[in-house]
Design brief:
Elements: H1 3-22, H2 37-40, H3 53-63, H4 86-98, H5 109-125, E1 133-137, H6 140-155, H7 159-163, E2 171-176, H8 181-189, E3 197-200, H9 210-222, E4 226-233, H10 245-254, E5 258-262, E6 287-290, H11 292-296, E7 303-307, H12 311-317, H13 348-382, E8 387-394, E9 397-402, H14 405-418, E10 424-428, E11 431-437, H15 445-459
Parallel strand pairs: 2-3, 2-4, 4-5, 5-6
Antiparallel strand pairs: 1-7, 6-7, 8-9, 9-11, 10-11
The structure holds pyridoxal-5'-phosphate.
């Protein structure tokens, strides 16, 4: 395959993409295959001789789409969305064509500078203070890991990076039980240890209690532990648990702790001013992550981390060996020093395309519709016999159950075998519940109301 062939096949791929999207509504949302089925259809070993692209493409069409869960299906209501707006797909194609490695300004000046400008555009779009700068990671997990490493090193006076952690005080970080497992993973990788995440009790609104946070920090100090930082949740994955960060930040600041806000999903909704009360006080946080690859419309992967002061993170993650020196260039940003991996994709391009192609107002309208339709659907489900709303809508996420745990679990299996919609589960206060989130980029009110119809059909 050469570049002339690439031209031909890119057009074929574009046609395929159009056909795929125009027939998505007719496909079952969740893959209906069994484990091992796809692998069994592949050759046992890589071919010694080249194969024709005709054959490769035909196999793609025959094997892949039917064995995928369709994340861009308008009736995907599982997990959180991973949207891919058409303008963002186009930008990803161009990113693949440029195939640049954007580790330093000089290895990709446009990528670096567009990233800097997109961080300002997004900061302002979300209503964040002008003191924030930002960078793009692959995922929220990496952004949270970066923040946890930074809180570790800041607490240790940057001794951990040099000497390792043995012999140093036992570090502690604080979060509620509503935070995502990426916090646990970060504590593991950072050498802090999952057992040193102190889980702060929440109140009836699922926010950490400031008095409990303060008491836990004091207790750790009196036990010669070293508090390092606090992680807040805005829109937790399970049922949307959200910390009242204004009050909690006061406690964290009084103890001079580093703070990180995980708004991976809910952050996108902050382009709508009316939702910003959900993260009142956020301007005083040190670090904030949100994923444009979830609700906003940027293709996976694209996680944005805003930093009040990038200095501590750059001091924690940045390294400049001889071969990465940028001789004679001082007033430039080398984003690899802000992030865990050295190599970086040109992710800012899809943000630039996305924000311009739909405009903030177009993106706001989508999110407002999702929230409105989710509330409407929640009311409809509450009226169905045997159904109970367990957690009310937090933006566009709510949860429900049907009769008891066993009946709810059985119903979920039936729903996803039926294929018209895709829902997933969680546990809330010990009970098995089904989550519904509305957020797919192109879903309509009628797609959302299909959830009610499916529930009614399957329980009639
Ligand atoms: N934080 C929250 C609240 C999430 O919902 C998720 C994923 O759904 C994550 C973090 C991890 O996101 P990522 O897949 O970008 O690492």
């Amino acid at each position: 395959m050469n570049h002339d062939d690439l031209n031909f096949w890119s057009k074929r791929a574009a046609d395929w993409t159009r056909d795929y999207y125009s027939t998505l509504r007719d496909r079952p949302v969740r893959a209906q295959v069994k484990p091992g089925e796809t692998a069994a259809r592949l050759a046992d070993a890589a071919p010694e001789q080249p194969e024709t692209m005709d054959r490769i493409f035909a196999d793609f069409e025959a094997i892949v789409p039917g064995a995928m869960t369709h994340w861009q299906h308008p009736r995907f209501f599982a997990y959180f969305p991973a949207n891919a707006a058409p303008a963002s797909i186009l930008a990803e194609q161009l990113t693949a064509a440029l195939a640049a490695q954007a580790m330093l300004w000089q290895t990709a000046p446009a990528a670096t500078e567009i990233e800097e400008v997109m961080m300002r555009w997004l900061r302002d779009a979300l209503g964040l203070g002008a003191h924030f700068t930002g960078t793009i990671h692959d995922s929220a997990t990496t952004a949270t890991l970066s923040a946890v490493l930074t809180m570790r090193e800041r607490a240790l006076g940057w001794a951990g990076n040099e000497e390792g952690l043995s012999g140093l005080p036992r570090l502690r970080i604080y979060a509620s039980d509503q935070t995502h497992s990426s916090i646990d993973k970060s504590a593991r990788i950072a050498g802090i240890g999952q057992a040193n995440i102190c889980r702060i009790p929440t109140d009836e609104t699922l926010s950490m209690r400031p008095d409990a946070l303060d008491a836990a920090i004091e207790k750790d100090k009196s036990n010669n532990c070293l508090p390092a930082g606090v992680i807040f949740s805005v829109g937790g994955t399970s049922v949307g648990g959200t910390d009242r960060i204004a009050d909690l930040l006061k406690v964290a600041k009084a103890h001079r702790l580093y703070t990180h806000v995980d708004a991976a999903w809910a952050g996108s909704a902050m382009i709508c001013p009316e939702f910003r009360t959900l993260w009142d006080g956020v301007d005083d946080a040190d670090s904030v992550v949100f994923n444009p690859h979830k609700w906003l419309g940027a293709n996976f992967d694209c996680a944005v981390q805003f930093l009040a002061d990038p200095g501590p993170q750059v001091r924690t993650l940045g390294l400049r060996p001889d071969y990465l020196q940028t001789l004679g260039q001082s007033e430039i940003t080398n984003f690899n020093e802000w992030t865990v991996p050295l190599g970086r994709r040109f992710r800012a391009l899809k943000l630039w395309f996305l924000l311009r192609a739909y405009g903030l107002d177009g993106l706001r309208q989508r999110i407002r519709n999702h929230v409105k339709w989710s509330n409407e659907l929640c009311h409809e489900i509450a009226r169905l016999p045997g159904f109970e709303i367990v957690t009310p809508p937090m933006l566009s996420l709510f949860s429900f159950r049907y009769r008891d745990d066993a009946a709810t679990e059985a119903l979920l299996t039936e729903i996803n075998d039926d294929g018209r919609i895709y829902l997933t589960q969680t546990r809330h206060e010990g009970r098995f519940v089904i989550r519904v989130q509305v957020g797919q980029f192109d879903c309509t009110r009628s797609d959302v109301m299909t959830v009610r119809d499916v529930l009614r059909d399957l329980t009639r």
